[in-house]
Structure formats: structure tokens, C-alpha cells
Amino acid sequence: MSREAAVAQDLRQGRSTGGHRESRTRRPDRPHAATGHGLVRGSALSGFRELVTELGGAPDDLLHSAGIEPAMAGRYEEYLPFRRVMELLEAAAESTGTPDLGRRLGRRQSADILGPVVPAARTARTLAEAVEVFSRYLGTFSTACSLWLVPRPAEGLAFVEFRSALGRRWLYPQGAEAVLSRALTVLRLLAGSPFLPVDVHVPHRPLTSQADYESDYCTTVLFDQLRPGFTISAADLDRPLAHDPVAHRVLVEHLSETTPRHSACLVRPVTELAEQMLPMGVPTVEDIAARLGLHSRALQRRLSAEGLSVTDLVDVVRRDTAERLLAETDMALGRIARRLGYAEQSALSRACRRWFGMTPSGVRRTARQSGTSEAAAAHA
Hints:
Elements: H1 3-12, E1 39-41, H2 48-54, H3 59-65, E2 79-81, H4 82-96, H5 101-108, H6 117-122, H7 127-137, E3 145-152, E4 157-164, H8 173-191, E5 199-201, H9 210-217, E6 220-222, E7 229-233, H10 234-237, H11 245-258, H12 263-277, H13 285-292, H14 296-304, H15 310-328, H16 333-339, H17 345-356, H18 360-379
Parallel strand pairs: 5-6
Antiparallel strand pairs: 1-2, 3-4, 4-7, 5-7
Helix pairs in contact: 1-11, 5-8, 12-15, 13-14, 15-18, 16-17
């Protein structure tokens, strides 16, 4: 009997899944604490304490400073605030002088930290179907991170893209790199050792040399990209896997029952609708709920289970859109204000001071200076 079939049999009999002491009777959508930017399983920090100790750091001190109990690190049964985990990785990298800490952590973590979504993917028919399983059920591992498969048929390619509840920019480079390393480990496990992505997209400037990145990711690496992810060939998506229809069905049924049905499923559509509706004015809870086919109270209740609100998400969309338009276009400030649903340009100025600590012109000037410095460095 395969490992996946054994896991499926355990699920049918109500026993623990993959050694994580979780059964059908315990729903994982009852986290120990709520947070405004979603949650992630404690297993996301599997190997963290060992790695930091090897680097000469004090992992428990770092965990306490981040507001995380050391006993929760590495435990799938626990939920941790996503933002705190991101801040922890940044602090650990700085305190140990290890700019590639996120990549190191992601590489040393096994696929098992993601829970039953991995055996469900491994028993799918093809790699494309396995990626779809991750896209649909990643919420069992984290309510703050989603995966999209974006086809590019004209080029014979597809892009596996990660999105964060923290907004368009992954504010924490170590976390983004840990996610990429972990995802590539899982994808190679599914597709087999000869598999390599076409390229990897990193959403920030390089933290070490490009040669280090290409050695770690074993492919071309592009920096300062819109979102983290990697490009794969359409032919690779058709790769057959060790399909086990019975085990796959049982595992997917279990995931369907245990995938959180609140903000993990609503963050993406709410933010997309907000982005579409902002030029016509600030969308209300009632406006977005109507577009989603929900009662406004139901939408508020499902978002508040994660400490979120429509106001929070609209603010994230505004911030990200403002950052992009100021950095990447010459659009007039008054027009940007209207694009964000503000009646006056002064409202945009106040928002930018709150988001970025500077005026809209300052944000644009800083982005231009940064771009000029990067171009000069590349030329040199």
C-alpha cells in the first residue's frame, strides 16, 4: 500500500493525518488567535530553531520577540499570525547576518509540513491537476497565501504565482524566498528530479549574488518582479503522476471538509472587486456582498473570523495601486486620487503619509531614484 493510500485509509477511519494528530472530527478552521492578515500553520517554522542555532543565533529569544511561543514552532496543529512569522524571518536573518536565511529554511523543510494537501496532490493524474489541488486547498495550510496557475498558451508556458494577504508587494523578502524554495521542493517531489522551472520570479532586489540564487533555485532568476512564482512549460504540466483514484478521492474529500470557508476564500475576490470598483467610488460592504451573492452581514462575519474587514482589504488595494502608479507611471496625482476613489488629491496625500511616511511626490521621487541607482549598478 502506498503512503498516500495509507493516509487516505486513516482518514476514512478517523485517525490522524500524516502524523499531525488531526482527524475529520477536528476542523482546522478554528485557530488559536485571529490576526488582520491571515494565519499559517506552525509547521511553516519547521527547522527554524535548528537553523538559527547552527547560525549562532538564539531562536527562542527571536520567537518570543515576535510574539510566538517557541513550542508552537514546527507544530502543524498550531496556527500562527502570518505577519509575525514574516517579521520573525527578517529578524533572524538580520541577527545572524544570513541574507539567504529564507532560502535555507525553505530548502531544509520537507513537503510534509503542508499536511494532507501534499498526498492529495501526489495522487492526482497529472502535474497540472496536482497544482490545481494546491490552488484550491492551500487554505488548509495558510489563510494568508494563495496560489494561482496562470496559463500562457501562446508561449507554451504557465506561471505558478503566489499572492499574499499582505498586499501586492511581499513586504518581507525572507518570507517570499522561503515560500519559493518550499514550493520548488514540493514541485520537484511531484514531477521528479529532472524537472526544472524555466525561471523564478523574486519580488525584491537580490539579497545575495545572482549566482547564489541560480545555484539555489537551479534556474534563471528574475528580480523585482510583481509577485513571487515560477514559470514552467505546458509540457511539464502534462507529466503523469502516480495516480491513485481511491486515495485521491478520499484525500480531496477530507480537504474539502477542512479547508477554511471564511476569509481564505474571500480575500481574493473581495480585493479584485475592490480594485475594479474603486474608480467609481469607495465600494461599501453592501456593494461587494451583492457582487459575491452574499448578505452583507454574512460577508462581514466570514471576514471578521480572521480579524479582517472590507475596509482593511480596500485599504490594501488602495496602497498597492498607489505604489504601482506612482512608481511605474507619470499619471497626474489628481487622476491617481480619482482612480483610488478619493474625491480630492489631498486625501491621497494623507493616505500616502500614513502608508509610506511621505507625500505622493516623495514616493514617486524615491522610486525613480531607486530605479536610477539600480540601472547604474547594472551598467557598472
